[in-house]
Specification:
Length: 169
């Protein structure tokens, strides 16, 4: 089976696919390789990776975990009723090692998708202002000298700090 052979549907509220075909399977393996994990913990971790803008459903996670178990790449380390904690097997470690390029590509795609989801969650007026700021910086041309670069950097730092600090009521 290839790294991209599962068929999960990973769409946020906006409808676009955040994880590529097979990415969920690789992501679950990579997270379980870090340490044994329960299914609900994997759901929560992936939700955190996407800053709350996408959380996979149990209907995507649990069948994928079952597939990984059937392939011998993970195993149930501990079970309490329906709660199972999954751990990597030697076959799982070998699979990830053999598919390191696919894992790295999935990691890059996932980071990009998480940033895109966070950006798309911003109000349109804020996205437009971000675009205008980027445009102003990029079209500035070669008129940069050290003093001007420091002035603009200080302005950007002040704005970033002001945005990060919630207003007092």
């Amino acid at each position: 089976m290839t790294p991209s052979s599962d068929s999960t549907h990973n769409t946020p509220r906006g409808g676009s696919r955040l994880l590529g075909h097979g990415d969920l399977r690789l992501l679950l393996l990579a997270l379980i390789e870090q340490q044994p994990r329960h299914g609900y913990e994997l759901i929560r971790l992936i939700g955190e990776m996407f800053h709350g803008h996408y959380t996979p459903s149990p209907g995507a996670i649990y069948p994928t975990l079952t597939l990984l178990e059937e392939l011998g790449q993970i195993q149930v380390e501990q079970a309490h009723g329906n709660r199972k904690r999954y751990a990597m097997t030697e076959a799982g470690h070998a699979f990830l090692a053999d598919n390191q390029d696919a894992v790295e590509a999935m990691t890059l795609r996932t980071r990009h998708a998480a940033r895109t989801a966070a950006k798309m969650a911003l109000p349109p007026v804020v996205r437009q202002a971000m675009h205008e700021l980027k445009h102003a910086l990029m079209t500035r041309g070669k008129a940069w000298n050290t003093a001007e670069a420091r002035r603009v950097a200080a302005l950007l730092d002040d704005v970033a700090q002001s945005i990060a600090t919630p207003p007092e009521h």
